[in-house]
Amino acid sequence: MDLARLASDIETWARELGFAAVGITDTDLSDYAPDMRRWLSRKLHGSMGYMARNVDKRLRPERLHEGTVRVISARMDYLTDAVPAIPAPGADTAYVSRYALGRDYHKTVRRRLVRLARRIDQRAGGRYRAFTDSAPVLEKPLAEKAGLGWIGKNTLLLNEEAGSLFFLGEIYTSLPLPTTQRAASDQCGACRACLKVCPTDALVGPRQLDARRCISYLTIESEAAIPPELREAVGSRIFGCDDCQVVCPWNRYAKKSAEADFAPRHGLDAARIADLLGWDEATFLARTEGMAQRRINYRQWVRNLAVAAGNAAPAPDLVSRLEERRAGADPMVREHIDWALARLRGVA
Length: 348
What we know:
Blueprint lengths: L2 H14 L4 E5 L7 H9 L13 H5 L1 H4 L5 E8 L17 E2 L8 H20 L3 E4 L7 H7 L4 E2 L5 E2 L7 E8 L19 H5 L5 E3 L2 E2 L5 H7 L6 H7 L2 E3 L3 H4 L26 H5 L3 H7 L10 H13 L5 H11 L4 H14 L4
Parallel strand pairs: 3-10
Antiparallel strand pairs: 1-2, 2-7, 4-7, 5-6, 8-9
């Protein structure tokens, strides 16, 4: 078997399946272990208990999938329009992170990875397993080692030709494929734009994220109350946050994707907060089917919208929608609604 030729063919097949780039790396992640263990020891992962489980499998890919000697890392761009603007204070439009506007990327990316793995299997055999943010995988370190970019000060993978607005996926394989050259370790230079722009100061240092303050964590990962002292900074962001990507100079080169799966659905790229508050649970479930919004439940959805409403300019329809949602809300959600109503009525 000509493994060099196979590696070249894998790149061709990946592009045919909609991937923008692929790279190949070995399984040695020892250089990343100290930072990860330090991050966990400082409890910066918040309530994401899964991050502290299976640490050994994260750091030793061969222990997650027996026989793995190489990891194929793949990039799929998701931006279907221009790089967005940072939400303005007082906005009545809800902001959803651009990655979550279309079909759930887990479904799209993993399906393509499985097709790629099957094609490799037909040519060369071996053992394979495909992942897309769905198992204890350190996808950014693997992608960095595979030459797809470098981990920037905002903790995201950056690419000099594509910025950071892309998904990553991996194929663990037992084939000893030739590895690709690693990218430069740091092309952020003296830039600190992402650290300065973070609304909640979640970036506590270059490549150091306190997830407990991150808006993506607060609006998606956490099911608890959003701390009152952070609510105003959340603004109109109801599912994730893109600010540290929006200001990153490298996203001048972000590539637009022609992938139909990532096109915005149900007008969520420009939906009014009041209109979304009008969704009952059945409507929420119907309109978010097959989307990343299903990462949260309805009570989180209303909680997030209540915070956004409290940060919007006062309007009668916002008040009426909040009052409607308050009737069936549990104590945690009701507290957010009351916070928003007090602000809209000028008593907070």
